[in-house]
Design goal:
With 130 residues, the chain is of the alpha+beta class. The protein has three helices and four strands. Strand 1 and strand 2 form a beta hairpin. Helix 1 runs antiparallel to helix 2 and helix 2 packs antiparallel against helix 3.
């Protein structure tokens, strides 16, 4: 659980970076620096959205497997986010657009309480942004 309203985003980024560094050094997983940085970006976007729009607790879980790194963020707001069409004139609300570009897969599911958003980031290849 990410505590403290004011420092959740920074704490989540530090946690994600430390997790991936540990996977690389202790388990020898081939995680390039670019792939290592992507979960921090994704965590920033997801935690910022949950911090802004959902009241109450926020949970983050990182899972790693052969397919990649799953960044799981749960919050108490039941509204499942949707990716908006690209609009260079829009100020803000580009978080899911960014996540969709860097994630291999993106799941958003309503839970009995709140919702869970899970992007998967490939360990060895980054999806083509085109």
């Amino acid at each position: 659980m990410l505590e403290g309203r004011g420092n959740r985003i920074a704490a989540a980024r530090r946690h994600a970076g430390a997790f991936l560094d540990r996977m690389r050094t202790e388990y020898g997983l081939p995680i390039s620096q670019r792939v290592r940085d992507l979960p921090e970006l994704v965590v920033s976007e997801l935690v910022a959205n949950a911090h802004k729009y959902a009241l109450g607790p926020l949970l983050m879980q990182l899972r790693i497997g052969a397919d990649g790194v799953d960044v799981v963020v749960w919050d108490g707001d039941p509204a499942v986010p949707t990716v908006r069409a690209a609009d260079p004139g829009r100020v803000g609300r580009h978080g899911l657009e960014i996540i969709k570009k860097v994630a291999e897969k993106l799941f958003a599911e309503r839970e009995p309480v709140g919702k869970r958003v899970t992007p998967r980031i490939a360990l060895t290849a980054v999806p083509d942004p085109a």
